[in-house]
Write a structure and sequence with these properties.
By secondary structure, this protein is mainly beta. It has 5 helices and 20 strands. It has helices at residues 109-119, 139-142, 178-184, 188-193, 303-306; strands spanning 6-13, 22-23, 32-36, 39-47, 74-82, 86-87, 91-96, 125-127, 134-138, 145-151, 167-168, 195-196, 200-208, 211-212, 217-220, 223-226, 241-249, 255-265, 296-298, 307-308.
Length: 315
């Protein structure tokens, strides 16, 4: 089936439990605010030429008109305020799956993975053929932008017009240039020496121009992989297809945030309901739609799936 037969839906939350997730308004100027025992986070997702849910979402963002992002297709950006200090080598970022995907990996996957490691992220490691596939990289070397902020008791106000840039305070010997910083932290010793400090704000941005979410294709130098061509569309196996990104602690298993990109068939034959929300098993729990307002997810609990308003939003 063609990409035009699908909706793209993006959801996010503080854990793998889909009941704690909220529909994320792509290209919104307002972030999703997540508060949980390990950290406070503001999270934003941008997709160029977006045609997904909720209907009426902005097709683009001023982010993509910035000179640094003219060729990028998407961005997952965030501010992070840890509530406990975390050793730098322990925070990882990447993709993982609950079920095997080896039977759906297209021809040329291994070649594509080598190109990804060469061009995008040399620190990426994983096993796409296991029963629980994963592709993770150390956040310190995987994130395109890392900015270190000041110590403070709460996250700063999100200013969507301000594009995160490399740099900041208290970086020690870490190079100021983003590319040099990423190469610096490919060395385990340097990652181990770094600490994400409790009460200090960190800005992160992950982006590239290679993954085209609108056409569901991976476009690498000299290599294009039309992902949609290899999806399993047999009637008995129809289900929403997902790509999940996670920021987590490899040592403790603590999850900081999870973002899920879901392809939903417009004819509804994959289990999506009328509103486009996934329903079904534990990892496909029903979602609660929401407005563009900032929300708080508190420990995955609270009313309507754990979404409660900020105190200053309550009359």
């Amino acid at each position: 089936m063609a990409a035009s037969n699908y909706y793209l839906q993006v959801t996010a939350g503080p854990s793998y439990d889909r009941s704690t997730h909220r529909l994320l308004n792509v290209n919104s100027t307002t972030p999703l605010f997540i508060s949980q025992p390990h950290a406070d986070i503001n999270l934003s997702v941008k997709i160029q030429n977006y045609r997904g849910l909720p209907e009426g979402s902005p097709a683009t963002s001023r982010y993509f008109s910035h000179p640094s992002h003219l060729n990028d297709q998407y961005s997952i950006s965030f501010t992070l305020l840890p509530k406990q200090s975390i050793r730098g080598d322990n925070i990882i970022f990447g993709n993982d799956f609950d079920n095997p995907i080896r039977d759906r990996l297209p021809p040329g996957f291994n070649a594509a993975f080598k190109i990804v490691k060469w061009v995008i992220d040399p620190g990426l490691e994983g096993d796409a053929y296991s029963d629980t596939p994963y592709l993770y990289g150390p956040a310190l070397s995987s994130l395109n932008i890392l900015r270190v902020g000041e110590r403070r008791g709460e996250l700063p106000e999100w200013r969507d017009e301000e594009i995160a840039e490399e740099g900041g305070e208290e970086r020690g010997k870490v190079p100021a240039d983003a590319g040099a910083r990423r190469r610096w932290f490919l060395r385990e010793e340097e990652r181990t020496n770094w600490v994400f400090e409790s009460g200090r704000v960190y800005w992160g941005d992950f982006f590239n121009g290679y993954l085209d979410f609108n056409n569901f294709a991976l476009r690498l130098p000299g290599f294009t992989l039309p992902i949609i061509k290899y999806l399993d569309m047999r009637q008995e196996t129809l289900r929403p297809h997902k790509l999940r990104y996670v920021l987590k602690n490899r040592e403790t298993g603590d999850v900081y945030f999870v973002v899920v990109f879901t392809m939903l068939r417009k004819d509804g034959r994959d289990g999506g309901d009328e509103g486009g929300f996934v329903s079904g098993s534990d990892d496909e729990a029903a979602l609660v739609s929401g407005s563009d307002d900032e929300v708080v997810l508190v420990n995955g609990k609270g009313e309507k799936g754990g979404f409660v308003p900020r105190e200053d939003d309550v009359d």
